[in-house]
């Protein structure tokens, strides 16, 4: 079967990342599997072997490539829970999360059959503004850990608003995700009540080439300009100044963005591309051919008009030359719910827009201010929820826990 | 790299089914990939190549192995839509479904990028009781196409009740599923309004060995006794008598079953297994070792008590010796929603229990009657929704459509 390896088969094998380095794949001559120009064959792996390391300098689930499914749960701390209670909660949650992400059964969970497929599960914890009051650390709260400023076009529903704690669970397996979510909610039940749950999805594991930028429900490639190298991530995402408890942490902004598919779908493809400034086919800027080509905002067409409309989403969100810090890590998921009873809409869809950055005042807010003032996409999208969380640094060992340096006995 | 093929590597390759028969996988020596006793290595395929054939004697999505994600949409026919309108709707829907399942863009859909990954998409259509009135075929309505009888323990919410039409979409990719669902809803919007949407999930594609029986959120292996051979399916699922328009069709019963995880999780594992009559580890009957071992209901323990509790779910649902027809094809999906606002429950979970059969009066109702009278599981589960649909036979060609023989001009 594998006596003759064609050059392509060899290339396929060499570009294939394999679970635990254990399987090598070899392609036989078959036109339908031949990678086209600019594409690569999908990695062939076995999902149930896949894990993301929980321990590290940074929390997982931030720069981790987005998994297929999201459960984002916001919590309100119950009355009477004090700093000692928060410490117990975070010790408990951290221990349980580390076990779940490793495919192990947390204490008190009698169902190893539901935890043996972590499928790239990540569990990421964040602290809302009021948590600093609860733990008596008002004076340590970062300036930026406050509600995002209100924009003229916002229609924020408080039911998707600020919360005391957030747990972001992302997983390539929906059953594992449901069980892990259930476990975390139950484990925390003495300390916190669920405020909201935002669920989302992207393509399934294996449905697209690895590393392919996800698409939203408007069909747009969404997240092309994300920081991909450790240097870019350090530059945009990870806090690298201030107190020790904040360093290597980040800031998560969650915006719930309703997308009106009913009116969007009336547009022809060209109008859709003009609104975005990018091609629908592969996300390339309208001045380029490939997704990662640099946009040429100065380029004009034969009428002397700019090829990329200055009011397009891409042009408006692009950082000005004198403000290169206006970049964020987008980690958005699609949501798609049944229309509300009585609604005339055919859909109730949009984005759970999650982004990470060092400082939302300098990053998300500056970008959003421009988009609020003018963005062709505004006709079809509405921000309906907003919350901000401090993401503490990663957990380094089993004796460590989320926020330990902020909450430690010695403080 | 593949010069030496170990025996295990060869076995791996030979048990691997590959998309379009194009890739062969060869395992290198690596202990962590060694299949344990009684297990086999998961099939290694590329999800975005996977399709399920739409055309055939029977509709797909019935005996098709359950995909990871479900959208089950029930519709009410709009006032004024008559038989000709239903015919137009079903022609349109059938054409669109056949294209979507093949990874092609249906007419009026401008987003080939959102339809190029069918990922085993199936779209299955069913007719509710009132559809026969709307098309003036009351006298042809099957006796069994009527609400399931009310059981003593039912707490049915009409919002999950009978409807005129149902479309079941199942897919291994959540984004493809969302787009296909959106397309079908929009395509039908002139004729029908959405009544309810039931979403569900199982393990992701690739997360478990192919053909492994799914688990529900109680951790139970669910669906062991399903008909697996064409003979069993013909016996239990496919209508093989009566008018031509019904033959090779089936009956879908949808029950929404709430499962109380909060009280279930108080039980120890032994109590959970006694309730079910099966082992949690692999679904084996408590009298056996492997999932598919025959249950021995006569076997007693050292105290002379039956090993399988006669009130266990398995014992109660097992067909009596004189009624072998009391079997159904279960194709249930888990649901897991945020708790309703104000609820003290930590979860809002259960099953979208879908089953297929020839005649629910003789099959589902007979089984459910026994379960309603006594089933240890009843303490933790509640039926909260019920609907019945006739599933017309498969579509044989592009000129054919769902229900054509029932709706044809000559009738």
Kindly state the percentage of residues in helix of chain A.
10-25%
Oligomer: homodimer
Task: Tell me the greatest interface.
Answer: A-B, 75 and 75 residues
Give unreliable regions of chain A as ranges: 1-44
The tally of strands of chain A reads 10
Backbone structural class of chain A: alpha+beta
User: What's the mean pLDDT score of chain A?
Assistant: 88
Share in β-strands of chain A: 15-25%
- Total number of distinct structural domains of chain A: 1
Q: How many helices of chain A in DSSP terms?
A: 10
Shape of chain A: globular
Distance between the termini of chain A: 65 Å
The profile of the biggest β sheet of chain A is: 5 strands, antiparallel
Question: What is the CA-atom radius of gyration of chain A, in angstroms?
Answer: 22 Å
Order of helices and strands of chain A: HEEHEHEHEHEHHHEEEHEH
EC number (chains A, B): 1.11.1.19
Cofactor (chains A, B): heme b
Domain Dyp-type peroxidase C-terminal (chains A, B): 213-395
Protein name (chains A, B): Dyp-type peroxidase family
Please describe what this structure looks like.
Chains A, B: GO terms for molecular function: heme binding; metal ion binding; peroxidase activity. Two copies of one chain form a homodimer. With 411 residues, the first copy, chain A, is α+β, with helices and mostly antiparallel strands. Chain A has one domain. Chain A is built from ten helices and ten strands. In chain A, α2 packs antiparallel against α4. Chain A is globular. Chains A and B meet through β1, α4 and β5 of A and α1, β1, α4 and β5 of B. β1 of chain A pairs antiparallel with β1 of chain B.
């Amino acid at each position: 079967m594998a006596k003759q390896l064609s050059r392509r088969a060899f290339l396929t094998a060499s570009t294939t990342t394999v679970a635990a380095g254990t399987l090598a794949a070899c392609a036989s001559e078959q036109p339908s599997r031949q990678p086209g120009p600019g594409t690569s064959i999908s990695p062939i792996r076995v999902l149930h072997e896949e894990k993301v390391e929980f321990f590290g300098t940074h929390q997982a689930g931030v720069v981790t490539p987005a998994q297929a499914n999201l459960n984002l749960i916001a919590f309100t701390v119950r009355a009477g829970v004090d700093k000692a209670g928060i410490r117990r909660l975070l010790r408990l949650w951290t221990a349980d999360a580390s076990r779940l992400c490793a495919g192990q059964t947390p204490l008190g969970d009698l169902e190893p059959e539901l935890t043996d497929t972590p499928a790239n599960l990540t569990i990421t914890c964040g602290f809302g503004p009021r948590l600093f009051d609860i733990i008596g650390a008002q004076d340590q709260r970062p300036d930026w850990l406050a509600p995002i400023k209100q924009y003229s076009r916002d229609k924020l529903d408080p039911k998707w608003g600020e919360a005391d704690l957030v747990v972001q669970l992302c997983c390539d397996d929906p059953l594992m995700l449901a069980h892990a979510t259930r476990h975390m909610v139950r484990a925390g039940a003495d300390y916190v009540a669920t405020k909201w749950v935002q669920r989302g999805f992207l393509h399934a594991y294996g449905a697209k080439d690895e590393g392919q930028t996800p698409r939203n429900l408007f069909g747009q490639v969404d997240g092309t300009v994300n920081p991909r190298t450790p240097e870019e991530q350090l530059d945009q995402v990870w806090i690298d100044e201030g107190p020790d408890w904040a360093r290597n942490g980040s800031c998560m902004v969650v915006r719930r963005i309703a997308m009106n598919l009913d009116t969007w779908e009336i547009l022809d493809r060209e109008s859709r591309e003009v609104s975005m400034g990018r091609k629908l086919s592969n996300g390339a800027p309208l001045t380029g051919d490939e997704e990662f080509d640099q946009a040429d905002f100065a380029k004009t067409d034969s009428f002397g008009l700019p090829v990329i409309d200055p009011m397009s989403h891409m042009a408006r969100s692009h950082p000005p030359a004198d403000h290169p810090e206006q970049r964020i890590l987008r980690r958005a998921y699609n949501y798609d719910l049944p229309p509300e009873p009585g609604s005339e809409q055919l859909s109730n869809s949009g984005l759970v827009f999650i982004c990470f950055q060092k400082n939302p005042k300098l990053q998300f807010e500056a970008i959003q201010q421009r988009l609020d003032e003018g963005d062709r996409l505004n006709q079809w999208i509405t921000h309906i929820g907003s919350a901000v969380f401090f993401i503490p640094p990663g957990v380094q060992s089993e004796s460590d826990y989320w926020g330990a340096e902020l909450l430690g006995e010695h403080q």
